[in-house]
Amino acid sequence: MENRTPEFLEMNPLHTIPVLEDDRGYITDSHAILSYLVDQYGADHQHLYPKDPFKRAMVDQRLHFDSGVLYNRFKTLMKNYSTYAERFYW
Ligand SMILES: N[C@@H](CCC(=O)N[C@@H](CS)C(=O)NCC(=O)O)C(=O)O
């Protein structure tokens, strides 16, 4: 699998996708990638990841809900019901 090659593991030892390569290195979590892209390149789209601490916390709350709750439940569901998932994820 492409995400287990030495080259990929050099970028991300957790062997997960997505991985973003930018000038200063690799970012290996989708939520971190999203907030980074808006901060770094989205000057005209700051409403997507606001600077205001409370508004930003509302976005962070949903990102953490995704990685902490939703994705785990999705994985459990896929594990139980999909042969595709068995081939690619575990
Ligand atoms: N928290 C990580 C999770 C990434 C993740 O688990 N990606 C899955 C695909 S959705 C993956 O790469 N699985 C392959 C593996 O673990 O080898 C993120 O949001 O980027």
UniProtKB/TrEMBL annotation:
<dbReference type="InterPro" id="IPR004045">
    <property type="entry name" value="Glutathione_S-Trfase_N"/>
</dbReference>
<dbReference type="Pfam" id="PF13409">
    <property type="entry name" value="GST_N_2"/>
</dbReference>
<dbReference type="InterPro" id="IPR036249">
    <property type="entry name" value="Thioredoxin-like_sf"/>
</dbReference>
<feature type="domain" description="GST N-terminal">
    <location>
        <begin position="1"/>
        <end position="45"/>
    </location>
</feature>
<dbReference type="GO" id="GO:0006749">
    <property type="term" value="P:glutathione metabolic process"/>
</dbReference>
<dbReference type="GO" id="GO:0004364">
    <property type="term" value="F:glutathione transferase activity"/>
</dbReference>
<dbReference type="InterPro" id="IPR036282">
    <property type="entry name" value="Glutathione-S-Trfase_C_sf"/>
</dbReference>
<protein>
    <recommendedName>
        <fullName>GST N-terminal domain-containing protein</fullName>
    </recommendedName>
</protein>
